[in-house]
Every structure is written in C-alpha cells, then in structure tokens.
Amino acid sequence: MLAVALIAFGACDGSNSIGPDSNSLPGTEAVPTEAGVQAIPLSQPEFSTAFAGGIPFGTSALPTSWFGSRYNGALRNIWPGSLRSELAAIKARGGKVVLMFAGNEKYYKDGSGHFSLDKWKNRIDRFRGVDFNSYVSDGTIIGHYLIDEPNDPANWNGRPVSASTVDEMGRYSKQLWPSMPTIVRTEPDYFTFNPRYVDAAWAQYLSRRGDVGSYIRKQVSDAQNRGLQLVVGMNVIKGGTPNGTQMSASEVKEWGSTLLSSTYPCAFISWQYSSSYLNNSGIEDAMSYLRNKAENRSSRSCRS
Hints:
- By secondary structure, the protein is of the alpha/beta class.
- It has a domain at 199-304.
- 27% of the residues lie in helices and 18% in strands.
- It is built from 8 helices and 11 strands.
- Helix 5 (212-225) links the parallel strand 9 (200-205) and strand 10.
- Helix 2 runs parallel beside helix 4.
- The longest helix is centred in the last third of the chain and has 15 residues, at 281-295.
- The N and C termini lie far apart (42 Å).
C-alpha cells in the first residue's frame, strides 16, 4: 500500500470538499482513510449487479468498495489512467458517479489566486484520450462536475467566478462530450440567466440553511425557473446542530427524508465519506432508510 500526498479541496464552510485530487499511480485508487489518503490497488468487484433504480444515493469521495446495498452514488475524482477500470468496477457494483475532471482548484488558479479558464481547460484536456463514452450512454456517469463553489470569493482570492464563465466551461465540456451532463456545485440562484451549457446546479443542506422544507422548495423553484436539473445532498460532517458538528442519525433521517420528498432532484450525494462516521450503526440505519426512499423515486437524468 503506497502513501500518496494528495490535497483535499478547501471550504469556507467545510461543505465543498470531495476528497483527494486523484493524481495517484496508475492501477491504484486514492481512498481517504483515518490516517490520510492512501493509494490501494484497484480491486475487482466480488459480484455484478445492475443499478437498483430511482436516483443515485451516496457521498463524495466514496471508495469503489463501498458501492452496494447502501450506497450507489458518489462524487469522485479519478486519475485518467484509472478511469475506465474504476468505472467498470463502479458499474458492476450497481453504482453511478459524478466525475470531477479538473481536480483540486490549486491547479487552475493564476498567480494572483484567481480562477484561470485556460488552466482549467488544460486539466480537462487530460481526459481527451480516454474513451468512456459507453459509460455516459448507459448512465454510469451522472455528469461532469465543472467546478466547486464558483460563487464563493474565499475560494478565488476575493474574485468569484462569473456565471458566464461557468457557462463557458460547460460549453467546453459539451464540445468534448456532447451528451454528458454538466454540473456545478452552487445553488441555482447563482445564475441570473438561463445557462445554455450547464445542466444542473447543486443544493447541499446544512442546519444553518434554516427549515429544510422551505429550503428544498426554493431550490427546486429556482432550478426550474432557470431550466436546470438539481443534485441535492447534506453536509453530514459539519452541517448538524449546532452548526459545525456532525449530523445525528435522527437529523440525517429527518432532513434527508424531506429533501427526498421532492421528486425533482436527479441525485442525492452528501459531503462526505468518513468511515468512522458512516460505520456508526445509527447512521447506517438512517442511510439505509434514505437509500430505500431514493431507490423508490422515479429515475431522472441530470441533463436539462
């Protein structure tokens, strides 16, 4: 087992990290552990199963080995050389995944700490030679995660990324992979216009957002008004009561159920994978309950 020095995304509210930047060695999977991030050999699934139906349910940075009866969705950052084998393993476990191609934001900032579209495109271009179209066609890939919190000035040294720039990022992605949905991790009202090339926004609930019912109704309305699909989830690690604490099992169950009461979201992916948190028996029960609700929803594409 090889240790690799990989850096997780930073977040002003701790809600936007998706795990390591997977520039790990070919043939390995970058997996977050209690001791840090380690690269382990890619494992073949012990079984093969189809996606169970409904909408994908899971967490960011979820290791492939965790796809199964409780989780079948994730947000992942996978090294280009390992992408096809990882997608095959995820599909065999009945999973679907949102892919972050650009990786850690440090790779696409200029010398002043501001977003650089040219550097971002260079990061995306690493995947030009990888043929994963079949996984787009069959729905294993939920979508392309363009950028995390472009609206937050703290992420970009005081200068937020404009909505028009994010739409241009979507256009660039569509030039390369026309049928792959494009997703940005920001709430729909970030867009003051109906974007042409962005398919879905992302609403991630935490306790300081207020009443969860009001929250999801507003997010759905804002998404519909802008012609966007919507990914939802919760900040289970730092979004509990009081704010900054882990959500309790009862909070996960209650708030997640309210989010899933809407038939509009196309995926439910929470921040983030933590083996110690997710292995708690109460959390396991709450997550299994939510997985059942997600599975019994009508399937919905994240493509607008």
